Amino acid sequence: MSSLEDVVIFVHDMDTVLRRLNPFQQRIIAMNVLEEYSLREVARLLPCPLRTVEREVPDTLDVLSRALLECGLIKQA
């Protein structure tokens, strides 16, 4: 990021992408990726079955990846 304007645009774009997720997906991604809780800890804290979290995290990351590709925030390798 080279300027404040670039940062503001990036944050806005990320906010838009994250809003595509439902509240449960937003929470598990926040806990697992941003707060660095293990999947077991996420399941315990929510509370929900561990299998649900194990299934939902990769699916949600796929949704995020597709959205980031669509809006140009990441490029396909």
Compact description:
By secondary structure, the chain is an all-alpha fold. Helix content is 71%, strand content 0%.
Architecture blueprint of SSEs:
Layout lengths: L3 H15 L4 H12 L4 H7 L4 H21 L7
Helix pairs in contact: 2-4, 3-4
Global Rg: 14 Å
Largest sheet: none
Shape: elongated
Q: Calculate the mean pLDDT score and round it.
A: 91
Report the structural category. mainly alpha
Beta-strand fraction estimate = under 5%
List unreliable stretches of 5+ residues. Answer: none
Helix content percent band = over 70%
Helix run count: 4
Beta strands, count: 0
Explained architecture:
- With 77 residues, the protein is mainly α.
- It is 71% helix and 0% strand.
- It has four helices and no strands.
- It has helices at residues 4-18, 23-34, 39-45, 50-70.
- α2 packs across α4 (50-70) and α3 (39-45) packs across α4 (50-70).
- The longest helix has 21 residues, at 50-70.
- The radius of gyration is 14 Å and the shape is elongated.
- The relative contact order is 0.14.
- The mean pLDDT is 91.
What descriptive keywords fit this protein?
single chain, 77 residues, mainly alpha, 4 helices, 0% strand
